[in-house]
Amino acid sequence: MTVLRLVLGALGRAALVVWVTATVVFFALRGGGRDPLEAILGGPGSQAGPEAVEAARTEYGLDNPVVVQYLDQLRRVATLDLGTSFSRRVPVADLLRDAFPSTVVLAATSLVLAWALALVVALVAVGARGPVGRAVAGVLRGLEVVATVTPHFWLGAVLIAVVAAGLGWLPATSTPGQPAGLVLPSITLAVPLAGFLGQLMRDGLEEAGTAPFTTSARARGASPARVFTHHTLRHASLPVLALSGWAVGSLLSGAVVVELLFGRPGLGRLLVDATLVGDVPVVIGAVVLVALLYVVVVTVTDLLERVLDPRLRRPRAGVATPDDASAEPVALS
Amino acid sequence: MRGTARRLGVPGGVAAAVVALMLLAVVAPGVLAPGDPTAIDPAGAMQAPGWGVWFGTDESGRDVWTRVVHGASSSLGVGLAATAIGTGLALVLGFAAGLGPRWLDVGVARVVEVLYALPTMVLALLLVAVQGPGVAASVLAVGLATAPGYARILRARARTVAGSGYVAAARLEGRSGAWVLRRHVLPNSLWPLVAVVTLGIGQAVVWVAALSFIGLGAKPPSSEWGAMLNAGRLYLTTSWWLTVCPGLVITATAAALTVLGRRLGRVAS
Amino acid sequence: MRRPAPVIALSALALVLSACSGSTGGDGEGSGSSDPSGSAQAGGTLVYATGDAEPTCLDPHVGGNYPQALISTQYLEPLVGRDADGTITPWLATGWTVSEDGLTWDFTLAEGRTFTDGTPVDAAAVKANVEHLQDPDTGSSTGYLAVGKVSEVEVVDATTARFHLSAPDAALLESLSQQWTAIQSPAGIERGQDANCAAPIGTGPFVVEAWTPQQQVDLVRNEDYVRPDGTAEPAALEGITWRFLPDAATRYAALGSGQVNVIDNPQPDSIVASEGTDITHIDAPRPGSSNRIELNTAQAPFDDVAVREAFIRSANPEPGIETLFAGVTAPSYSPLASVEPTAYSDESLFGYDLDEAEALLDGAGWTERDADGYRTRDGERLTVRFPVSTNQSVAAEQSLFEQIQANTRQAGFEVVLEPMDLSAWYTALGENAYEAVSAPYTKVGPDVLRVLYHSDSTVPAPSGYFANHAQVKDPALDALLDAASASQDEAERADLYAQAQAIVLEGFYILPLYDQQNHFLTRGVEGVETLGTVSTPTFVDAALTQS
């Protein structure tokens, strides 16, 4: 029953996300200063001949009433008929398929790295004792804020200048299938996210360390290690886990910059290239794909949350988990 | 008042001083840096920081300190505008979900989810692709993308406060819903938001800078901090001050706002 | 509670470390040696990293921009070549003759040469190529203009292709020496645009093997390569990895750390920093036009020559060029590149004179100043919209524009620099929403003047693009350019072009800046040459150096 619920939930979510995305795109296209046809074909510099213009006009039904056009757009997105890239003359779906794996590898590596970094920093900050420890914890807290506002393009440039060009330890560029090239882009993507997650994780650990359930577990004679892994860590990781969907979105945002900087192929770079030449079909396709990826991540996270948090094995209500009132973190973009 | 100052502590005091300095730079940049931020001097390009040129000069010989100070209003403006869009939307969504009927809560949850599904840069590039480039697209995108996070906090707080004993007591005393909202729900829900919103301002500056990196950001010769950071990045190995100085200012601003936000939140509760 | 912390910390560290250790030697695709004294060796794959936009089609007939010319130099060859002095040399065509009236050209092709798919390089192939360029479905801009006066190609026999012209075209050979009119296999063209864009088939020293979008194009050696002089001798390299690396700083770092052997579009400060290291600098300015700012004469305020002169007199780009470009280029005072033998300069027109500029503006009626210090006339501010394509102007150039903005402000101009993407930039030009613009345009030889300043070029092509951004419409200038184009006499041509350039300069239509910059940095490789046409590098004689 739970599985069925989950599947239905995921499908409903996907449908909604895709619907809103398609709607946003539809109205953005028409509300803008650019003629939708021009935008689809890439502006007056597109070299589109009269036949191409006519073909696009027919394909996108731009002579039809707006309502019909809107329903058409929904149908196209729903059937994943994403059209053809005007600049590359290949189906948008093919471009997305080629770019997707490289970005997923980068985002996944960065996510794991960000979690690990955040956890280490949070543990040190919470566990620190004595004046030296407190000083270290203070410095770490400061570093978290600094990391959170560090731009990817700057951090990446520093890493390239120091680690790649200066020390020669790692390559300055990144190609799929070459693990060494993944290191610097992953660090670049992970650090700002880790700064943010670290603050959450620290709050969670501090709170869980004094929470009744840890005290009672200790009273029951559980070893400190068991209390830590089974209660404290579990509790502290929940808000971070709940943010995975957002975190992946944030990583995809960063991937736009990082892929450009390290010359790595991927979804972000495809999106930028398409934006720069005004290849709207590709931009729309990439946005829809990103939205679907979010749905997948959220569904998986949901599943994990249920495994980790016994209270969630009952049906949920609303957006929030029962205990998120105080510990609920805010997700910035 | 004195009590408040004491409870701010030393870090809070320092943060307050930094924020005051920032505000001064916004209101009267000429006081801190009397020069012209766009005055060029090719012969004096790329000077390292020193006496009189506190932050050095850039590739056109412009004084970096003067540019940073005069760029405060546009940089903080970008951050504030984006955050205002985010919080404005969040207030509506968060309170509707937190205080409204169940179906509204569920509905808002779905809207929030959709907003989460469109990351900042993806949204920004979509807006640029269909509307043309500019700072407005990035500000709007950052605002929209930050809204769901704020909305979730507000909803949770509003729920907690609305379910608390003193609200129940107030309702028993016959107070109106509006009175309760104004007197209890708003103050108790908004303070937790302050700390994250202040951090959000710093992040918004950084995201708008990312659009400059792609070449779609602020118009020259604007000395918006993110744009300065990006322009200086190309001279990273030879002229470090071009990125380090504006970078430090962004960081200091974000850190000061965060610390101040947290302290104020603690003082208020 | 504390004990597990170090364990987790350690395992996270181990994760990072193992990722690091997997890296040593992992970047083996670049075989560049850091030892400059290493000797050349046969074989190996050269890695080229380009900062130009990734082409959307590898066939330079389609569209026709510089990135396509760069890469297609490796696998497509033109009918004729051009050496550094501007002399036309035989390539696929071993010889040519022109009729008395200049309307008929006979090209003789070498016998027995084939494209890499086995199709013979014959007159029918040349005919198919010209028809491909002229076919509207191809969507050619640059090549289309180059063969604009060719009405028909007649196949006289297998090795003789006869070009019939609608009007004499003295620039025909120069036009045909460009990469955008390079000859490719008709069988390849027959496959349709999609297939041909992915892997055009030519006669060059390398062959397109695979194209991984956003990442690289893999080129392998053409084992049967025949050089222009007829000798069969393949390239020394086994192949080229052509990588797309948009960030200039990353490109330079990749060169320094041995991942790549050649980079293009380096920043001026990188060029200076590489002096005295094992990095070699190749300076190959593009031919044709100089890099300049064009002033839109079709509307106010630049319809008034006095305002144009005031802008140019107050711009003062020289000190900026000196510092921003760190001595890698010199200021230009000519519409043509310094490498063009027919270039005509007049430095006296471009001296910085703020007082003169102010006097000119006063005389033109821009007498009032508003609260921001900008000049106004009838309440209208003296505004210059300047759209800047961030794909086409390097960082140093954008900084220079900011300096010009600051300098002209002294005279009362409000220059609005608008950084934008390429499609928005085209839109701005198409809508006449600009007063100043800097557009790259490359064509071999002085005939580029006709493309850029002839009144015909103000009429948009079917693609919507027009090259005469200054919108110069001067019958005297048109007559000179037409006469130069029709003349068969070199000395007469040079004289006509000099007169035409004088008109362009004295009309203050443009502010010349410097040659169109084209620099390459190489490391761990020798024998890299650039062609005398549009200065693209060829690797036919390149060899990696290994210690």
Automatic annotation (TrEMBL), chain A:
Record's keyword annotation contains Transport: yes
Keyword Transmembrane helix: yes
Keyword annotations: Cell membrane, Membrane, Transmembrane, Transmembrane helix, Transport
Membrane-spanning ranges: 7-29, 104-128, 149-170, 182-200, 240-262, 282-304
InterPro entries linked to this entry: BPD_transp_1_N, MetI-like, MetI-like_sf
Annotated localization: Cell membrane
Residue ranges the record marks as coiled coil: none
GO molecular function, one term: dipeptide transmembrane transporter activity
Gene Ontology cellular component annotations, sorted alphabetically: plasma membrane
Membership in a protein family: Belongs to the binding-protein-dependent transport system permease family.
The protein's name: Oligopeptide transport system permease protein OppB
Organism: Serinibacter arcticus
Lineage summary: Bacteria, Bacillati, Actinomycetota, Actinomycetes, Micrococcales
From TrEMBL, chain B:
Organism: Serinibacter arcticus
Coiled-coil regions, chain positions: none
Residue ranges of every copy of the ABC transmembrane type-1 domain listed in the record: 72-261
InterPro entries noted in UniProt: BP-dependent_transpt_permease, MetI-like, MetI-like_sf
Subcellular location: Cell membrane
CC terms in the record's Gene Ontology section: plasma membrane
Transmembrane region(s): 12-32, 76-99, 111-129, 135-154, 190-218, 238-260
Name this polypeptide is given: Oligopeptide transport system permease protein OppC
Record flagged with keyword Metal-binding: no
From TrEMBL, chain C:
A Gene Ontology biological process term: peptide transport
Region (Disordered) location: 24-44
GO molecular function, one term: peptide transmembrane transporter activity
Compartments where located: Cell envelope
Keywords assigned: Signal, Transport
Main location class: other
Biased composition (Low complexity): 32-44
Domain Solute-binding protein family: 87-456
Keyword Lyase: no
Signal peptide segment: 1-25
GO cellular component terms attached to this protein's record: ATP-binding cassette (ABC) transporter complex; cell envelope; periplasmic space
PANTHER family linked to this entry: PERIPLASMIC BINDING COMPONENT OF ABC TRANSPORTER, PERIPLASMIC OLIGOPEPTIDE-BINDING PROTEIN-RELATED
Family membership: Belongs to the bacterial solute-binding protein 5 family.
Protein name: Oligopeptide ABC transporter, periplasmic oligopeptide-binding protein OppA
Species the sequence originates in: Serinibacter arcticus
